[in-house]
Design a protein that fits this description.
Two copies of one chain form a homodimer. Chain A contains 16 helices and 13 strands. By secondary structure, chain A is of the alpha/beta class. In chain A, the strands form three sheets. In chain A, strands 6-5-4-13-12-11-10-9 form an eight-stranded parallel beta sheet. The longest helix of chain A is centred in the middle third of the chain and has 18 residues. Chain A starts with 40 loop residues before the first strand and ends in a 20-residue tail after the last helix. The interface between A and B is large, with 46 and 46 residues.
C-alpha cells in the first residue's frame, strides 16, 4: 500500500481497493531474484510457478472499486505485460476473457498509484530460465514507501534535454519507484519553456526558438507520460536569481547593474523594486499553475547575488522607502514573500531552496524547504523541521557532481535522522539532483542509473533492512541488469555481465 | 601526408599519390569552423564556396596511382559523402560522371591512409548555414601526424562489449584520427575470443559461451571495419598474469597455488615451469598471428603476482634447476623471453607493458614498451628510449579512472618530452586506455568522447600550436557537436547546446 496524502494526484485519482488476477501454475524450484527497492515485508519460498504468456492476464477484482476504464491501470496492464514477457511478441493481455481457472496472484492497494507500484514489484519477481520460460516464486509482499516524496531533478536549461530523453527517464524512474519529476525547466543559460502568455521568453531566451524549446504539447506529453507511471511533475521557475535568460524576452524584469552612476549594461536578479515585476510573475505563475496540475510549485530562491541590487540606485531608494536599511536579505525576503503569496492565492503549495529559509524569517512562510547544501545537512533538516516546516532533502544525492562516478554506495548512506516523531513526519522525502552543466541526452542515462536507484532504495525501504552495502550490491547488480533488459542504458557497477547486454549503440 | 613506416598496413596498401576532385563554386563569406585535431599547417580565408550535393563528387586524379577499384578509398568516398551532407537523402556520389566544370578541391597524399585522413579533415571543413546550404571556405592545409601510433585500448574481458559498440567506437576513432585499436580482448574475468584451435577457452572461460563471445566472423568484421578507416587492430593476449579465465578451458596452464604442502585449489599465473605451457602459447599465438594481420602483437606481461609461484614446489624446483635462486623476476623474464621469441618467429613485433622492462633485463628484448604507470612517466619514457627501445605512452590517458570525468583538459596536458632527436624518434605514440571495470556498452561512448579527442590532438598536432586549453575549448566544443551530429554519443564539455542535439535515447 502506498499512502496518498502528500503524493495524491488530485484530480487524477481513479478509485480505491481492487484486485488483480493472473494465471499461474505451481511447479519446480528456483531461487527468487530480488526486488529493488526492497519491499518493507517480503517472504518467498523456493516453490515456483510457470507463467504462460498466452494464458496470463491482468484483471480487476470483483470487489475492486477500480474497474476496466480506469485509464491509469488499463495502461499499466499493457505496459507491464510487455515488461514481464520481453520475448513474447503476441499481446495476450488484450484477450482477458480466458476462463482458465488455475493459480492466481492478487494485488491489493488503497490507491491506483499503489497498484502501479505493486505491478512494478510483481514484474521484478518474474524471471526466465535458460530455455526462456517464465517463472514466479511463491511470494508474499506487504509494501509501502518510507517517504512520500521521492524525486529526481532534471535541469533543462544548462543543456536542452529532448522530450524523448525525459520520457525515457520517467520510464526508468517508475522502475525504481520514484514519484516526483522535479523539472528545473529554466535557469540562467536558457529559457526553453514556451509560454502562452509570454512567448518572447523562449523566442529570445531559449538556445534556439524552434528546436530547443518545450511547447505546450511537449509539456502535456511529459505530464501525461509521468501521470500514467504514478509520477508527479513539479515545475520549478527559479527566481529572483538564476534568471539571466528571462531578461532576453522580458525587458524591465531584471535589475540593471550599475558601474558607479551609470548602468553597466549587465543585468542582475529579478528587479524587486518594480510593481511590474510582481504583475509579470503573477501572470506567469498563473499560467504555470494551470499548465502543471500538481499541487506543488517550486519557486527556487537560491544563490541570489546582492551585488547588482546594491549597485542600482533605484533598488537602494526602494530599500530606504521600505525601511530595509542596507540588509538585502530583507529585500530578498520581501520578494520571496510576494511570490509565495501569489502561489498561495493560486492554491499551490510552494517549495523553496534552503537559502530562503536560511537568510531571513518570512512572515508568510513557504510550506516546504528543500535542503541542498553540503555539510551537516541533517542539522539543517532539523532546523527546518523545528519551526514546523516540511523538508525535502537533496544534499546527499547530487549525482551530477564530480567524484568517482562508479561509487554508487555514496548515494546509499543511511540517513540516521534523529528527531521526534513529529519532526520526522515533516521530512517528506528526498531528491536526486542532476544539474546540467555537464549533462545532456548523450550521458544522462548512464550518469543517473543505477546510482539514482541507490537513492531510491534509501527513500522507499526500511533503513534497518537496507543498511548493508555488501548485501545491497548483488541485488543492485541484478536490478541494473533488469534496467538494461528494459532498454535503460544503466551503467555497470563493477566487473561482470548481464544475460542480456545493452543492444543499442 | 601521413607517413607510413610503423603505421603501414602491410598487405592492405593500395598505392601512392592521387588527387580527389570536387565541385565548388565561390560565393559569400563565413567564418570557417575548426578542424580537430588541429592540422600542422592551416590557412583559410573568409571566402566561402557553396557545395551542391547533387553536383558534388569525389574522383581520382588523372595522375593518381590509386584509381577506381581501390577498396579503401572507394568506400571512404561513399562514407564521407554522407558525413558531409547529413541532410541529403540522395546518393550523388554514385553519379560521378557529371560534367559540371566548376571549382575543384584537391587532396594529395602519399598513402591511401593519408587520403582517408584528408577526407576526414575536408568533411570537418564543410558547414551548413541556417537554411541548410553547404559551404566550405577557401582553405590550404598541409598535414601529418606528430606520432605514428595513436591508439585506444578497449577491455572486452571485464565487461563484454558487443561488436556493434566496437564498430561505433572505430567510427568515432577515425573522426579524431586515431589509427590503432588496441583490443585487450581477454583477461582474468572472461575469455570472449573464440579460438579455432582451443574452442574450450571461450566455451568455458567466456561469461557465456554463445552470447558473450567474439566469433572468427566477429573478429574479421572488426578488422575489416577498422581497416577501411585506416585503423590497425592490435590484439593483446596478456600473460602470464591476468589469465584466470584461460584456466577454465585449458587445464595445466595455470600454476596450482599451494597452501603449505597441498594444493589450495586456487590458481595463479600461467605455469612457466612446464614445457606444455610454451607449446600451448606457441599454438595460440600462431592462430592469433594469422587471425590478426597487424605486424604488432601485444603480449601484456603486467602485474604478475609471485605469491602463487612461490607457493608451488614444482615451480621452486624449476627455479633451482634454472639457477634463478629465489629471484622470481628471473622466472618471469624467462617466460616473457620465450613468448617474445615465439612472436619473433611468427614475424610479429612484440609490445609489452612497462613491467617487463622494469623488473628484469631481457636478453631477447621486445621491440616496444608501453608505459602505463603513474608518477614520472616521462622519466620512464626516457629510460626505455635510452636503451634504444621504442615507447608507447599510456599513463596520462587512463580515461576509465575515477576523477572529475568532465575535466577534459587533464588529457590535453602537453608532453614536454625532452630528449635527443634519436630518443624522441623512439617515442612512437600514445594510447588512451579504457579499462573495463566500470565500463560497458551502456556508458562507453560518453566516457570516451570527447575526452579521447583531447588526447588525439596531443598525439596528432604540433604541441606549440595546441598548448592553450582556452583556445582549444571552443574548438573542442564545436568538434563535439560534430560527433553528436554523426550519431556519436559524445558528452558535453560545459553549459551550452549543439544545433543538432543527440536524438537517440
Amino acid at each position: 500500500m502506498e499512502t496518498t496524502g502528500l503524493v495524491s494526484f488530485g484530480r487524477y485519482t481513479c478509485s480505491h481497493l481492487y484486485f488483480l488476477l493472473l494465471i499461474v501454475l505451481p511447479l519446480g524450484q528456483h531461487t527468487v531474484e530480488g526486488v529493488w527497492p526492497l519491499p518493507q515485508i517480503f517472504t518467498s519460498s523456493i516453490e515456483r510457478y510457470p507463467l504462460n504468456p498466452q494464458a496470463f492476464y491482468f484483471g480487476y477484482g470483483r470487489q475492486s472499486a477500480a474497474q476496466f476504464g480506469c485509464s491509469v491501470l488499463d495502461a499499466a496492464f499493457i505496459r507491464y505485460y510487455s515488461l514481464i514477457f520481453p520475448d513474447y511478441t503476441g499481446n495476450g493481455v488484450l484477450h482477458n476473457n480466458l476462463s482458465v481457472s488455475a493459480g492466481k496472484a492478487s494485488l491489493n492497494a488503497e490507491t491506483v498509484w499503489g497498484a502501479v507500484r505493486g505491478l512494478e514489484t510483481f514484474s521484478q519477481l518474474v524471471y526466465q530460465d535458460d530455455f526462456g520460460s517464465y517463472f514466479v516464486n511463491q511470494t508474499e509482499i506487504d509494501d509501502f514507501p518510507r517517504f512520500p516524496f521521492r524525486g529526481i531533478l532534471l535541469d533543462t536549461s544548462r543543456h536542452f534535454i529532448p522530450v524523448h530523453a525525459i520520457l525515457k527517464t520517467l520510464d526508468a524512474m517508475a522502475y525504481s519507484k520514484f514519484n516526483v519529476f522535479h523539472w528545473h525547466i529554466v535557469d540562467d543559460p536558457s529559457f526553453p519553456y514556451q509560454s502562452q502568455t509570454f512567448p518572447d521568453l523562449s523566442r529570445k531566451g531559449a538556445f534556439h526558438p524552434m528546436t530547443h524549446i518545450y511547447t505546450q504539447s511537449d509539456v502535456r506529453r511529459v505530464i501525461s507520460h509521468a501521470r500514467l507511471r504514478g509520477i508527479r511533475v513539479l515545475p520549478e521557475f527559479d527566481s529572483p536569481g538564476h534568471t539571466k535568460s528571462w531578461g532576453k524576452g522580458q525587458s524591465d524584469l531584471l535589475t540593471p547593474c550599475y558601474s558607479g552612476s551609470t548602468p553597466s549594461g549587465a543585468f542582475g536578479p529579478v528587479n524587486p523594486a518594480l510593481p511590474s515585476t510582481y504583475q509579470f510573475m503573477a501572470t506567469l505563475l498563473k499560467e504555470v499553475s494551470s499548465v502543471f496540475p500538481d499541487s506543488y510549485i517550486h519557486l527556487g530562491g537560491d544563490e541570489v547575488n546582492f551585488s547588482c541590487w546594491k549597485s542600482n540606485p533605484d533598488v537602494r531608494a526602494f530599500m530606504q522607502k521600505m525601511g530595509f536599511g542596507v540588509d538585502f536579505t530583507k529585500l530578498e525576503a520581501f520578494y520571496m514573500e510576494n511570490i509565495v503569496n501569489i502561489t498561495t492565492f493560486l492554491n499551490k503549495t510552494a517549495i523553496v531552496w534552503q537559502d530562503v529559509f536560511d537568510y531571513h524569517e518570512l512572515r508568510s512562510s513557504p510550506s516546504v524547504v528543500e535542503v541542498w547544501k553540503d555539510g551537516c545537512y541533517l542539522c539543517e533538516v532539523r532546523r527546518v523541521a523545528n519551526v514546523g516546516l516540511r523538508v525535502i532533502l537533496a544534499s546527499p544525492w547530487y549525482l551530477d557532481q564530480p567524484g568517482p562516478t562508479h561509487n554508487w554506495a555514496r548515494f546509499y548512506t543511511p540517513l540516521n535522522f534523529s528527531g521526534t516523531a513529529e519532526q520526522k513526519k515533516l521530512v517528506i522525502g528526498g531528491e536526486v539532483c542532476m544539474w546540467g552543466e555537464y549533462v545532456d541526452a548523450t550521458n544522462l542515462t548512464p550518469r543517473l542509473w543505477p546510482r539514482a536507484s541507490a537513492a531510491a532504495e534509501r527513500l522507499w525501504s526500511d533503513e534497518k533492512q537496507t543498511s548493508s552495502v555488501d548485501k545491497a550490491f548483488p541485488r543492485l547488480q541484478d536490478f541494473r541488469c533488469k534496467l538494461v533488459r528494459r532498454g535503460i542504458r544503466a551503467e555497470p557497477l563493477y566487473v561482470g555481465h548481464c544475460k542480456h547486454e545493452y543492444q543499442g549503440v
